[in-house]
From TrEMBL:
Pathway of action: Amino-acid biosynthesis; L-histidine biosynthesis; L-histidine from 5-phospho-alpha-D-ribose 1-diphosphate: step 8/9
Gene: hisJ
Molecular function GO terms recorded: histidinol-phosphatase activity
TM helices/strands, residue ranges: none
Enzyme Commission no: 3.1.3.15
Keywords: Amino-acid biosynthesis, Histidine biosynthesis, Hydrolase
Name of the protein in its database record: Histidinol-phosphatase
Organism: Cohnella xylanilytica
Lineage: Bacteria, Bacillati, Bacillota, Bacilli, Bacillales
Keyword Transmembrane appears in the UniProt entry: no
């Protein structure tokens, strides 16, 4: 690896994050020796995307704030010129059936945006759309009860990732699929997903990423989540991506300045083939 890069980070425009200024994140990135730092904030969602209005207000910035976020990030990019390559981006939600909404969000900023992390955070569930990563109780009540088994829910999740790859392939900026194992965030509290299903689906996704020339977010946030305890990209998957020429990009998914760089040692060891076999 020649470029030390954090490719998935957030800012004060994240309403489930932290009010710290981007300078606090970027200064920590500089101190840790990062060369590139991609700012990938959650963009607005369609009105009423989920039924819980309080939660909806925390998931993404209002549409009126998107221009302000772009100005803020581009201003910081200039501030750090010569010190840190700060890249302006978004973490785009894949919104099945509402791709035109996402296209409309991106269109005014195509000349500015350098990165798009395309993530699946939502599945259709009981009477509407639900987050796969809100709480274990919410998942159990509104998704597990709807699909019947974790395997069926996981299959739908991976179906959505495959659709997101097809959508992301049309984007002009650097693009990668976000945290492909987010469905396992509550692995220690929910029934298990068949490991063979996960392996089969992720192996198919590697081939699709390679064909579409789309990278993957090796997201370490799961390592700091008590209900998870593992990264959202397994070691064997990282190795297969490398073998097939898929770009693997470390992502701290930082929502607080102190999270910048978290789990980079896992990423580096996985990429260099230094992770013990039992970690696969």
């Amino acid at each position: 690896m020649t470029l030390k890069w954090d490719g998935h980070t957030h800012t004060k425009f994240c309403y489930h994050g932290n009010p710290a200024e981007l300078t606090e994140y970027a200064d920590r990135a500089v101190a840790l020796g990062f060369d590139r730092y991609s700012v990938t904030e959650h963009p607005p969602l369609p009105d009423g995307w989920i039924r819980d209005e309080k939660l909806m207000a925390e998931l993404a910035m209002p549409r009126s704030e998107l221009p302000e976020y772009i100005r803020y990030a581009t201003g910081m990019k200039k501030k750090y010129e010569g010190t840190l390559e700060l890249a302006v981006g978004l973490e785009m939600d894949y919104l099945d059936g509402h791709e035109s909404f996402s296209d409309g969000i991106l269109e005014p900023y195509l000349d500015v945006l350098e990165d798009a992390v395309v993530s699946v955070h939502y599945l259709a569930g009981r009477d509407g759309m639900y987050c796969v990563d809100f709480t274990a109780d919410d998942f159990r009540a509104n998704l597990l009860s709807y699909y019947g088994t974790m395997d069926r829910a996981a299959d739908e999740y991976f179906d959505q990732i495959e659709k997101s790859i097809a959508w992301a392939a049309k984007l002009p900026m650097r693009r990668r699929i976000g945290h492909p194992l987010l469905i396992t965030k509550f692995a220690r509290e929910l029934p298990p997903i068949d490991p063979a299903l996960i392996r089969r689906r992720l192996e198919r996704i590697v081939g699709q990423l390679a064909k579409a020339r789309i990278g993957v977010d090796v997201n370490t946030a799961g390592l700091r989540v008590p209900t998870c305890g593992h990264a959202y990209a397994p070691v064997w998957f990282i190795r297969q991506c490398l073998e097939q020429g898929v770009e693997v990009v470390y992502g701290s998914d930082s929502h607080k300045p102190e999270q910048v760089g978290f789990g980079y040692d896992y990423f580096q060891a996985a990429v260099e083939g230094k992770v013990p076999d039992e970690a696969d």
